[in-house]
Amino acid sequence: PYAPPDEYDLRVTFNRTEGQGPIEILLANRKHSFGLALDVKGDARFERVANKIAKDNPTSAPIAISNGRKYTVTVEVRKGGVSAFLGDKPLTQWKTDYKDMSRYALWKLPDEKLCGLGANNAKVIFYSVEFIDVTGAGKPLR
User: Fold this and answer.
1) Residue 54: pLDDT over 80
2) Half-sphere exposure of 39 (CA within 13 A, CB side)
3) Please, are residues 106 and 119 in contact by the beta-carbon 8 Å criterion?
4) Collapsing DSSP states into helix, strand and coil, what is residue 71?
5) Which of 15, 54, 72, 122 might form a disulfide with 19, Cβ 3.0–4.6 angstroms?
6) CB-based burial of residue 65 (10 Å sphere; 0-12 exposed, 13-18 middle, 19+ buried)?
7) Looking at the whole model, is its pTM more than 0.70?
8) Residue 73: φ, ψ to 5°
9) Helix (H) or strand (E) holding 70
10) How far apart are the C-alpha atoms of 37 and 24, rounded to whole Å?
């Protein structure tokens, strides 16, 4: 477990080896938790934006994750908003104070201030997970 600072980048390299389900990057900003879902029926999006999970979610962007291929996703969490990149290409972004964002119930963690990774109906290899502190310093909790 790692408690992130107010502003950070989270870089994850992964490979979905089986299944067609989404990969989830669970994020937090202060007291607010939210997630980035990758390849949910061909879309990527920050989940639960302004109470919108899928339909009408303003952060939805087309994406297709192919099994057997390695990907790197970087999420930049800043005081004024959040941005996601697939490789070096922008994927989606949202200007926010994080009060309008939350996690989908399936991805609840015991401590919502922490980050995490997940997959639903898929097998995924996570090769690396990097926290890059931008403002302040995060801290390991063990």
Assistant:
1) no
2) 20
3) no
4) strand
5) 122
6) buried
7) yes
8) -120, 135
9) strand 70-78
10) 5
Q: Do 11 and 130 touch, CB atoms closer than 8 A?
A: yes
- Predicted pLDDT of residue 108: 85
Distant-in-sequence, close-in-space partners of 60: CB < 8 Å, separation ≥ 6 = 43, 44, 45, 54, 92
The strand pairing partners of 7, in sequence order, are 135
Q: What is the mean pLDDT of the chain?
A: 92
Token digits for 57? 């979610």
Please give the structure tokens belonging to residue 122. Answer: 């898929």
CA dist., res. 33 & res. 112, Å (int):
6
Q: pLDDT confidence of 114, banded at 50, 70, 90?
A: confident
47 within 8 A of 56, measured Cβ to Cβ: no
